[in-house]
Amino acid sequence: MKYLLTATALTALMVTQGFATELKVAAANVSSYLDPGRDHSNVGSQFYFNTFDPLIHKDYSTAEAKWVPGLASEWKLIDDKTMELKLRQGVTFQNGEAMTADDVVFSLNRMYQATFAPYQVRSRDRLENFAGAEKVDDHTVRIIVKRPEPLWETLLNLQQVFIIPEDYTKGLTGDPMVAEDSDYEAFSLAPVGTGPYAVSEFVPGQKLVWTRFDGFWGDKAPLEKVTVTRVPEIASRLTALKTGEVDMITNVAPDQLALVDSEPNMHAEGRATALFHVMIMNVNHPKLKDPRIRQAMSLAIDRDTLNEALWLGKAIVPSTHTMAEFGALYMPDLKTFEYDPERAKALLAEAGYDGFEITFDTDPVYYTNGLLAAQAIQEMWATVGIKSRIDVDEKWTGNDPEMMARNWSNPMYFADPFGSFGVMWAPGGPSESEGRFNTDAAYAASWDKFRYSSDIDTRRAAYAELMERIKQDPPVLPLYQPYESWAMRTGVTWVPQAGHIPYVLDFRSGAITVDASN
Amino acid sequence: MTVAVSASRPVLIAALRDLWADATPMQRFAVGLGVSLALLAMATPLIAPFDPNAQSLLSRLRPPIGFDRAKPDYLLGTDELGRDMLSRCLYGLRLTLTLAALGSVIGLLFGGSLGVVAGVVGGRTDTVIMAAVDTQIAVPFTLIAIFLLTLLGHSITVMVFVLALYGWENYARILRGETRKLMRMPFIEAARAAGATPARIARRHLLPNLMSPIVVQFTLSFSNIILLESTLSFLGLGVQPPTATLGAMVGAGRDYMPTQPWIVIAPAVLILIVTFAVQTLGDWMRDRADVRLRPR
Questions:
Q1: With an 8 Å Cβ cutoff, are B236 and A306 in contact?
Q2: How many CA atoms lie within 13 A of B215 on its CB side?
Q3: pTM score above 0.90
Q4: Residue range A460-487: mean pLDDT, rounded
Q5: Rounded to whole angstroms, how far apart are CA atoms A340 and A332?
Q6: At residue B291, does pLDDT exceed 50?
Q7: Residue numbers in B near A309 (CB within 8 A)
Q8: R_g of chain B, CA atoms, integer Å
Q9: A372 touches chain B (CB under 8 A)
């Protein structure tokens, strides 16, 4: 940390001496729109943190939940359903507008009381409990929830409730006094926030340019300008880094790490990402209705070998749907998912599996090693007698009643089981509403206890109940937390930090240093 | 060339011997290459050391024999899932050749028949068929192929159909021209005067004389079809994994080009050899068939 601070100071010094510190990044994907509220994709999460702030920040260098003031300088519960927040004074948006309570209330209520369909989806799956926000005075707001909320800070730190300017957004199209859907659409192409970097150019799906926002309320951004360009092929990204065309590249597959290490002028940084690559199984497919078939599909997959072979052993294979990032709710002692080919064979025989073909759908490139894992799984299934066919298609088939099995990811949207398993597998959540997962009253009761109890042990016990249900009638198998890497030239110092959600490119003060003379 | 030939066995052998005597060393080499590749493809199940889809995940990305970390069982190394490169190359060659052969034959039958019909019948039929040919020539074929494969799904049957659609217009155009020329020949006039039916004329008098343009066009389009199959499979539109075709192997291996180049090089070299052999044979056939290019 001391080193980082010194380096930052040096960088700042060089900038004042007239060096323009620039960074060029080649990314595998660039979003087609930029609005932190509606987006929860692995592509989008790369970009929001540099441009926007939440009310409550955290110490992102650690996985622990250490909350620090963001756009709110202090916050307290005034009763069990109301939180009052004092806003930081003197904050301006990148377009020069001052941030006031009106902007905060507008940003929050566009999600909490969503009228724009894409916001409604995000609001339902994680912000259901929030009734609304109201202004007390210019620098005070209150947030009201429907039921006592055990995850206040966590849910105010979310990307979806980053603060955006009210007047600017409403004025983008049509009536400047009304927030129309078209205003939100326009905002997503010309986003403005309070963060240290303003989006100065955005070509959807291709290019994003950040320039330093000198009016930022916090520590001055270390870089003058950052250009992120889309380069989809890994071989081209590596070449661009090697020739010095770019300073940093994203999504380096483990198989390419040896190459990066062998080059004297570049290095790679990676970590097991807070996200699961999963296999989903359609519980409502007529041929997969018998849970024993799906249990066998799951038991036949040797995830440790996948990790060893495809991820150099650097991925994390979970015993249940849990990650170390969950803190007190990390429950590695639960054994929900195992490898047991003998039991798989026995279950298949019991269920009277007659050799019908199971299809496994996969996108050709979206998940690192996804197609390889699919083919390896096919072979592992073959050894217990399951016949399968791989369908490679970019189309999302998770909502297709014909879908039998496919790959997907369950990212950690916030550091709680609710933020990973919960968002995807809650009663009425995306999995159930897509028709490939069912819940009943008992499941909903366990879910409710898990979601709303303020007692950690009760939450753990309820989560264990949910996992037992998943084990008995499995709709999902988390394969591993993939090991994702970024490569950069010597002179660029950056690491993916433990406190972030997956894929965040954090270029704020203290997170990156660039040796401009190189 | 315009005399109807009915080849009996000894005559055929004599003709082949004549052909061989006539060939340049390069052409003989190409013949040898072509025959060996065909034999390899036919004998693949007997000679391939491994099941082409059998994985051994923990020995993936091993280089060919002679390099560091090579495993003695794997002559050409292993691919990204630890499958034997040699076996996959052989099976890939086999499937690529089969697809190309089926595609060429179906394209030939389809396009050829349309061409002959257009040439014999003429008039409005001719106009319609030739309009279809012109349309097909005007639209880039990769576009049509991608459209069809997206619409009809990825299976070997669809793939054969798409490959067959490629190049039918060339057969149609060439055979129509030849047929129209032949139809004005005195011996056809004579047959017609003697009361032969159009079907008999087509079978007994036209077909034997169309053989040489057919052979020439077939060899030329065969190598194009191999390249098309490779292109589509490279794009991920062709035969689905884990099935190996040469193009699919190149496509899957492209991420490994900087680090494990053999995964791309082995199938790419095979594509090169096959196209080279077939193309050389095609050129040779064309030279033989074209009277104006004959030395004597």
A1: no
A2: 15
A3: no
A4: 96
A5: 18
A6: yes
A7: 57-58, 60, 82
A8: 22
A9: yes
